[in-house]
Design goal:
With about 250 residues, the chain is an alpha/beta fold. The chain is about 50% helix and about 15% strand. It has a single domain (about 5-235), classed as Rossmann fold, CATH 3.40.50.720. It contains nine helices and seven strands; from the N terminus they run βαβαβαβαβααβαααβ. It starts with a strand and ends in an 8-residue tail after the last strand.
């Protein structure tokens, strides 16, 4: 495999860290963004103890100017971005009749508009070089919906609409665009949910357990390989059988 520069947004989170680790161990130069410098330094130091050197740049994916500056900094420090994983995401859960505009817009801006904000600055370079891999990290709840997550489900569903349009536009340029939709994974965020609630979630999963972050990372890494060059516009659901469909 040719080593390339990979940008993973939200790389310091649970799934993001696993993706960064996986891509780095495949030999890629991996970059991610941060907003809190102290937390970023601690995370980078922890990764360094594993022998993984991560290029870290400041950037808010929800802000178009900040996202473009982030991409340009990665290009300057690590080289042209050939692999992009749009992974950054937040939740602001509440039932829709109680949801205010800020709760709606923050989730849509960070989870969906960020796909535009980060992908737009890298797509021209990928087209010029005739090679690129773009992966959106969506969610099971973008497929089946979820009580109290109208904002999140809308944004995550929109990510795959973005995927399939971008895939059509860029296929002839050697660029593939795919979506990975994780189910409930044992990240810090999910483990912070009360145990009785987690037990109810697990009871709905045919495989009988939460997913592991590295299982999601394995799928993302697969989409970035040369061997996956005939797969584009796909959505890979990884949820233990929690939601099944075409």
């Amino acid at each position: 495999m040719n080593p390339r520069t990979a940008l993973v947004t939200g790389g310091t989170g649970g799934i993001g860290t696993a993706i960064v680790r996986y891509l780095a161990r495949q030999g890629h130069r991996v970059a991610t963004n941060y907003r809190d410098a102290a937390k970023a330094d601690a995370w980078r130091a922890a990764m360094a103890t594993e022998g993984i050197d991560v290029c870290m740049v400041p950037g808010d994916v929800a802000d178009p100017a900040s996202a473009e500056s982030m991409v340009r900094a990665v290009e300057k420090d690590c080289g042209p971005v050939d692999i992009l994983v749009n992974n950054a995401g937040i939740t602001r859960d509440t039932t829709f009749h109680k949801m205010d505009y800020q709760q709606w817009s923050e989730v849509v801006n960070t989870n969906l508009n960020a796909c535009f904000n980060v992908t737009r600055p890298v797509i021209e370079g990928m087209r010029a070089r005739k090679w690129g891999r773009i992966v959106q990290i969506s969610s099971i709840n973008g497929q089946k919906g979820q009580y109290g997550q109208a904002n999140y489900a809308a944004a995550k569903a929109g990510m795959h609409g973005f995927t399939i349009s971008l895939a059509q536009e860029n296929a002839k340029f050697g660029i593939t665009v795919n979506t990975v939709s994780p189910g409930y994974v044992g990240t810090d965020m999910v483990m912070a949910v009360p145990e009785e609630v987690r037990e109810k979630i697990v009871a709905q999963i045919p495989i009988g357990r939460l997913g592991r972050p590295e299982e999601i990372a394995h799928a993302v890494a697969f989409f970035t390989t040369d061997e996956a060059s005939w797969i584009t516009g796909a959505n890979l659901a990884i949820n233990g059988g929690h939601y099944m469909g075409w």
